[in-house]
Design brief:
Five copies of one chain form a homopentamer.
Chain A: E1 6-14, H1 23-41, E2 46-50, E3 60-66, H2 69-81, E4 88-97, E5 118-126, H3 128-132, H4 135-150, E6 156-161, E7 170-176, H5 179-189, E8 198-200, E9 205-209, H6 212-220
Antiparallel strand pairs in A: 1-3, 1-4, 2-3, 2-9, 5-7, 5-8, 5-9, 6-7
Chain lengths: 229, 229, 229, 229, 229
């Protein structure tokens, strides 16, 4: 039987002072961080992204998934042992769970493994006026929203739920290889009825899918070398 | 006779630079912090939680309770003597008091000792439109709210009051072993009438119940060893 | 003839790094700070409070009063010479003046010397809708507000005025030995008509009255010793 | 022919760590800063103010004026060479231009040289509802505003314009020797019709007029001595 | 066939501590930064601006353009290798794409190479009420807006689109040699109907066009010398 999963978005930003350390130290710091990710990824979904060049307030995103929240906690505890986390802040952090959608049969209880070049993520809060509508009305409005989405088949969507767990109601994640298509979709959705019930949909993160190794290399422009080599 | 108590939520975040100190120093810093907690816990309720992996802006929560506010002040003064507080900020802090509820006979004058795996806390402010309703109307609306809550028996609630003492009106704390149930309850409550009178219910903290020792260990991924051993 | 006074609320927060200095240095830093306070207090009202344990973003409050703003400026210049101010920020600062109230004959042109255990302070801004009411209407509404206040005789009030001098319109300061009474009063006031004209009444500070010496001791949990002894 | 001028308000805050440097270093840092101001002041208006004791988030204000924006840029480049700017942030910065007023013949194309003890400055934004009124209606409302201002002859006003240049629409600067008069004027203006069209008028800075030398001395409570003496 | 381009606005602010380094170190740090810019500029548009003297929260703006987002990412990765980025934050960052306008035939699929002395940039978000208008109504309102713009021929406009890519909907960039004209245009636009549909148009940056070399020199008031010379 499919079960609900916890999904965690952890955005990291490195202190510029870390870039002043010598190459060997930075390489070792990254190796320890990558080892923690590799361990977690053996039994769980872990995806990594770089935000270098797309945001100024975050450098790297780890998206992790587990059935038990304690696994996500333990992974982050192990991360704190790595040299890199002695120089990082977590400027944004979103905790969510998967859940069947009320409005669509396409929703999933696990987030999709990576398959696109770019991920677009934002925390989402609806107005209370939305929740005051009756269920049929909400269903009708969402069908228009879903229909517009289907006009952009190059864009995929994963929604997870944060009610009571974190500051937002949803974490919305779109994926595509064509950012221009996604931009056009979002602009097109502004004129749908559902759009008027949006209270907050920022910050909006453009994330470049890549391996943990490459995402770490983007922090200081230095390719990683094997420890001890 | 039961008396009202002060309840204090103190969220700590450690400077990443602390993780660069050597193991012995960090162990000593944690020992001093734990000793202060142990002393206070002899005569008062003290509960500890880890937020590593659930938030980016807080690492550890101490919830303390006392009949006299000066005891809570003195406990925090003693904390400042510990090595750990030479490297910590308090990014969030909520001061409240217990008080009988106008709407429910289940309210308490002491917060509950820990009994669940997870605690969900948020500061809560209602709109002024709520307070402009007459008392009977508020009572009717709250009964619907309470009725929905009872449909989720795995979730317990402790509300404390902050009017005039701090920036929020209430501090709301839910406990459960099943975060998914709590998420469903909060989403369900969005469609009740009372929900439209919420002005602010963030930040929302997901807190993992654990001993002070374990919460401290989660700060740097290092288990504590006995001082001098 | 009574004259109007300037009232200044200066909230300090010490850098955690200061707690890493050795005992003698910290003691000297506090002595210099206390000497500046003692000098000012010879000719002016100066009251001190600790916020350790009640807030996370401020540690100590100095409330000072003078007929001439330059005296308050000069006092803060002297403070910058003290060792402590080499490690402190001023996260909150409120400048105000006394003024006779339009609504009550009990207002004063000097703030009260300390007489209660706790002080509750917040900056206050009313909605512009309030000021669009005619004067009689405002007077009627304030009488209800004042009447509710009189039901809580254990709570005293000092209001000062900041229009044009600082970001708020008023600085409101309540005093009492019984925080529970004050909490009940503020909750009770929410249902008065005047409450609907509140635009902002946060942050709200719970402040523990104590000598400068004790407030300084609470910063690092170390009692002060005489300089040179 | 009178021409429009650029007006720049640059608020500085010194890092508390600067106060830990030895006296000679701090004196030299201030000398370099003062020399840059003296050079600019030879051909342009430059006024200086201290905010020590009136604000917690800014210590010193420089108000500068030039016909060409490049002169203001170059002055700030020279400032960065001074020792003091190695330890300062600019927490607030307002760029504006002079412009004839639509509503008053008293407006000027140059800001006034200093003549009062105190300056009160705030960035100002009107609601869009204001701009939707027709011009006659705006004129009528402003006449009431101006009439109230004239009841306080001890208070002078300089308004400059920031549309498109900075985050605010206007920078409003009042001057007086009597802060109490100004406070009374601002409170009185709250009840005028124009007041309901204010969107933002904070932060509001109380600034004490003084020479650059005195404003620098207020940063660390040390009077400057001549370089080399 | 013309294709859409990515446009990136990267605002940098240097840590004041960098100014404490010796001249040779700062010169080398700037040389590395300039070399990265020169490399990128060989195949792409790169424009540089100084904000010293116009803002307090940003010192330098790089505007870059590429058909492929990965090129912009890679450029920023190379920047992190430069000495300067070991001491810089990116306080503001805007990612956008070009797109034909619905309302004007003058829009472009590439941003204009620099030709004016000053650039005025702001992120722009419209109200949801705007998007609820039907298309003809939006077209009519925009024609008035465009007509007013044409009354100021000394001011040019480049609009790019950020829907879904970043926190704003548009990045609006005006260019002119005459800031006073631009100020008058923006003030004039306040009274148009389109203005009432603005939700956010701040922060607004006044940027001084100059070479990378001059923009770097403005950071510490030191002209660059050739590496090794």
């Amino acid at each position: 039987m499919p079960v609900r999963h916890f999904v965690k978005y952890t955005f990291l930003q490195v202190d510029p002072a870390w870039r002043r350390l010598d190459d060997d130290q930075r390489n070792a710091d990254k190796q320890e961080f990558m080892a923690a990710c590799d361990d977690f990824a053996e039994g769980h979904l872990l995806r990594s992204f770089s935000l270098v060049g797309t945001r100024g307030d975050a450098d790297l995103l780890l998206m992790t998934q587990a059935q038990n929240l304690d696994r996500i906690h333990e992974f982050h505890v192990v991360l704190t042992q790595s040299g890199l986390m002695k120089w990082c802040r977590i400027p944004y952090s979103y905790l969510a769970m998967t859940k069947p959608s009320e409005y669509s049969e396409e929703s999933r209880l696990e987030v999709r493994p990576g398959h696109s070049k770019y991920l677009f993520v934002y925390p989402f809060v609806k107005t209370r006026a939305w929740y005051a509508l009756d269920g049929d009305e909400r269903w009708r409005i969402m069908q228009e929203h879903i229909k517009v989405g289907r006009e952009f088949p190059s864009v995929d969507l994963d929604t997870s739920y944060s009610f009571g767990l974190d500051d937002q109601e949803f974490v919305v994640a779109f994926e595509t290889d064509n950012p221009g298509d996604f931009l056009d979709l979002v602009q097109r959705l502004r004129t749908t009825e559902s759009s008027s019930f949006t209270l907050r949909d920022t910050p909006t993160f453009t994330c470049i899918a890549c391996s943990v190794e490459r995402a770490l290399g983007a922090l200081d422009g230095a390719a990683m070398t094997l420890a001890g080599s």
